[in-house]
Design brief:
single chain, mainly alpha, Penicillin binding protein transpeptidase fold, glycosyltransferase, transmembrane, 62% helix, 3% strand
Length: 234
């Protein structure tokens, strides 16, 4: 009986993977042509800023992987996903820890997401926290990891992640906070930006937070051991 549906299932899965691959490369290609398509999260934030504050547009400029300081790459990996280079996109231990926290709190307060999972959510999914959305996130993350090299995943992530209210990507963040470029970020500046990622709006409004400075020093020390993709696949 199962043989009657296994072939259609496999063909359907392959078709989905091909379409997803074409979409990913088209998405990156549009960015590099200067057409800058927005992620799902960027679009939702742009609409929120317009309706709540009458603000038009967001701060965002795409830069290539080679134009982003290695300091920032190391800082983000040290802060968000120490095993980024080794894992296949999903850290099951982190997800289990998050599940226990959620069960204890009685609601979704943690996600256990890797950099790849965060990118999948930002690109295609909503910011809602639920087990169904987490399952979708995991499935799409595995597909992305199969089709894109680690360097490209990190490149897209660093160019699309939120770094403050209406601030998206490494270049905009470098300009917004330090009046410099993503390529010239120092180790200390990179560590501060990395620490902001879990709550960028909060730290944008509280840049002199003692916690921010203390946590940045911790990340600064961890950066030395952080492994980053070499950039040959970008």
């Amino acid at each position: 009986m199962w043989r009657n549906w296994i072939k259609p299932f496999v063909l359907s899965l392959l078709a989905i993977l091909v379409v997803f691959q074409l979409w990913c490369f088209a998405w990156v290609g549009l960015y590099r042509l200067g057409l800058a398509p927005y992620t799902a999260f960027m679009k939702s934030e742009q609409m929120r800023l317009l309706t709540e504050k009458g603000r038009l547009g967001i701060e965002h400029d795409w830069v290539d992987y080679s134009e982003i300081s290695d300091n920032l790459k190391r800082a983000v990996i040290a802060s968000e996903d120490a095993g980024f280079v080794e894992h296949d996109g999903v850290d099951w231990n982190a997800i289990e820890v998050a599940r226990k926290k959620n069960d204890k709190a009685g609601k979704a307060v943690a996600g256990g997401s890797t950099i790849s999972m965060q990118l999948t959510k930002n690109l295609f999914l909503s910011s809602n926290k639920s087990y169904l959305r987490k399952a979708e996130e995991i499935g799409m993350t595995y597909a992305m990891e199969v089709m894109l090299p680690k360097e490209q995943i990190l490149e897209i992530y660093l160019n699309s992640v939120e770094w403050g209210e209406g601030v998206f990507g490494a270049e905009a963040a470098a300009q917004h906070y330090f009046k410099t470029t993503a390529a010239k970020l120092t180790a200390q500046q990179a560590a501060k930006l990395a620490v902001m990622l879990p709550a960028p709006k909060k730290y944008d409004a509280n840049r002199k937070s003692p916690y921010l400075a203390k946590r940045a020093n911790v990340i600064l020390k961890r950066m030395r051991a952080a492994q980053i993709p070499d950039g040959e696949g970008v």
